[in-house]
Amino acid sequence: MVLAGVVVTMTTRTVQADVMAPKPAASVPPSIPAVPVVAPDSLTPRATKAAQRKSLLRGIASWYGSVFHGRKTASGERFDMNAMTACHPTLPFGTLVRVVDLKNGRSVIVKITDRGDLPEGRILDLSYGAAQKLAMTEEGLAPVRLDVLSHGAR
After folding, report:
1. Which of 14, 44, 68, 95 is 20 to 30 A from 124 (CA-CA)?
2. 101, 110 in Cβ contact below 8 A?
3. Which among 68-72, 75-79, 96-100 has the top mean pLDDT?
4. Lowest mean pLDDT among 22-26, 83-87, 91-95
5. How far is CA 97 from CA 7, 87, 107, 134, 148, in A?
6. CATH superfamily of the 59-150 domain
């Protein structure tokens, strides 16, 4: 059998499958180009971006309410704690998102109207009204999946 210019002779002796075979005594001549090292899929830019997108769409949601009621949000709208809105660190304002509670299966559609630095692991801060629809106001936190329905303009 010929591999990359090196002749390897196959023998009939028994070899254990979990033991590495010794390197052949002959070395590869320098005229044969080295085989390029291919990065594993998990390290390619495309896979990394996909993993980043996925991490933005699954995580823990929390909620906020009366303390911010009536204040201006980052989008310029007034926060209504009973409206179906949410705060997300990167999605454009006006983006419509279906939020699915992974524990109870309930879902609600919210509009992204605010920004904020969320604690690690949290991906969304829901208005009180949206959190009520998901039945998560007592616990305060819920594992969620986000389905982006339409992207906002800004």
Report:
1. 44
2. no
3. 96-100
4. 22-26
5. 60, 11, 10, 14, 5
6. RlpA-like domain (2.40.40.10)
Q: Looking at residue 16, what is its pLDDT?
A: 45
Per-residue pLDDT tens over the stretch 97-140: 999 999 999 999 999 999 988 888 899 999 999 999 999 999 99
Residues 6 or more apart whose CB falls under 8 angstroms from that of 111 comprise 84, 85, 86, 94, 95, 96, 97, 152
- Does this model's pTM top 0.70? My answer is no
Matching residue, tokens 């309930």: 106
Residue among 102, 101, 154 nearest 126 (CA): 101
Task: Give yes or no for a contact between 106 and 131, defined as CB atoms under 8 angstroms apart.
Answer: no
| CA gap 20, 24 in Å, rounded | 12
